[in-house]
Amino acid sequence: MAAPALWGREEVLRNLKRALDRVREGARAGLEEAGRLIEERSRARTPVATGALRDSAYTAAGETAASDPAVEVGYTAAYAAFVHEDLEARHETGEAKFLERAVQESEDDMVRIVRDRARIP
Fold it and tell me: What predicted TM-score, i.e. pTM, was given to this entire model?
């Protein structure tokens, strides 16, 4: 006869795995939502000459090499980094550091979004 502490062990492990999977999926969804928020806020700060830079913004959800949820927000325009880093440029619309400032402005919102999405119901 097995010791009472081992009864139901497999069920407990299955339940823990399901809970962990829900947290991981919630975190993935929260990171993607937070990424879209950053993209939206950075687009509003992006300098506009033709609109091509602003239109090149993207949010991509994925995983790290360790299979942890991840999100990437960026710009595909070849000159995006130059415009982002040029603190001397004066823009009629937008500003330098448009992505960095959007991330800084969104820190509390990002944490709240991921925390709320990753919560076990």
Answer: 0.83
